[in-house]
Amino acid sequence: MEYKAYNLKSFLKTPYADKMDKQDIENLKLAALVFPFKVNNYTLTLIDWNNYKDDPIFRLTFPNKAMLLPEHLEKLKNASDLKKAVYEIRMNLNPHPAGQLSNIPEINGKKLEGSQHKYKETILFFPKQGQTCHAYCSFCFRWPQFTGIDELKFQSKEVEILIDYIKAHPEITDILFTGGDPMIMSSRFLRAYIEPILKAKIPHLKNIRIGSKALAFWPYRFISDKDSEDLLNLFKEIVDAGYHLAFMAHFNHYRELEGEILEKAVKNIQSTGAIIRTQSPLLNHINASSEVWEKMWKRQVNLGMVPYYMFIARDTGAQHYFGVPLVKAWEIYKNAVNKVSGLARTVRGPSMSATPGKICVDGVSEINGKKVFVLRMLQAKNPELVDIPFFAEFDEKAMWIDDLKPAFSEKFIFE
Ligand SMILES: *Cc1c(COP(=O)(O)O)cnc(C)c1O
Ligand code: SF4
After folding, report:
1. Is domain 96-273 in CATH 1.20.140.10, yes or no?
2. Nearest CA, atom 7, ligand 1
3. Exposed e or buried b per residue across 109-130, where buried means at least 16 C-beta atoms within 10 angstroms of its C-beta
4. Strand pairing report for 244-250 and 207-212
5. CATH 3.20.20.70 domain locations along the chain
6. What is the pLDDT of residues 271-282, one digit of tens each?
7. Ligand 1 pocket, residue 116 CB under 6 Å
8. How many Å lie between the centroid of ligand 2 and the Cα of residue 168?
């Protein structure tokens, strides 16, 4: 299949748009002013168009009016300057959650833009050409990144600084390429990042990770794109050079894991020696049921993937629409994890990626007659805090760590 992306205007000219009610099209137009919209010819085939209103893949890729708050709708309706109104609504939706703008590494007085070093072992790298995706998730609020800069010049300099930084930090074992989606890049661009890293032979760097939703949004990336073969060869070169290549695949629903194309893409990646691990946020209206997760994890394990993280929808974008209370998130997790074999219980969560670290809701318990959340940090800026249980007062409405109060102490352990 030849990749074909659609924005709102071009989507409305496809026969799929004819399947939609007039009212839903109007609502889509409104929501797409604020939320990024992009679909492609493959994602459109994943949707059951006869039942699109309730279809999880439709909800995943098509923003809708319910994602806007009443005050946002009001603002759009009354706007004299629509661009300004849209900008203000977006700013209001917290586009840089969890201190994403901090944790920018520095070496020899040079800032390493496009990267983040928050947890000791792992440096995050956002390659410039990878800051877009094959389609957009309606819950995603990385729009400040979706700008599409396309220059090889900057890049070589950046990689040099990156390598110097990793060399100077013997605690770094992992580099994680993320985005957007690094798999949007041609293999030529990806090579320009990876080859210098392999050549540098940094002894403490052991694992190369690539975070991507391309298996769900464009599996042909690993089958029949012009440079698919070169991409798979690059994966193989990484593995042959002695690294663990971890492909961190983003899936939100088992419906993304059906079909022969997906299976073929998974096999092709695995045949390079890469290991596919999976992660997803828990999203109301898309995957907020234990049956969905149970089915998804079983399918992933069956395909040889390793379930890795379940995230709680972060405090950004349309959290009122996608957010799930912490207690419900834990129930969904528990009721799914207790129905799968140990091979799928590698998954951890439900976890909040917050400023101090990744905070896991281990469950609800009663201690000395007091109902509490049992929490634990899976990752922390301060590694000493990892895996120490701590407590918060039970709150059935709480959706994020900011909504919680510490129990049995003045402060949370990370404060
Ligand atoms: C999740 C995350 C990582 C990777 O954490 P692991 O638990 O090792 O997968 C690295 N950096 C940041 C900023 C993260 O949020
Ligand atoms: S694939 Fe990731 S970065 Fe891209 S739109 Fe979805 S959540 Fe956002």
Report:
1. no
2. 379
3. eeebebbbbbbbebbbbbbbbb
4. parallel
5. 96-273
6. 999 999 999 999
7. yes
8. 31
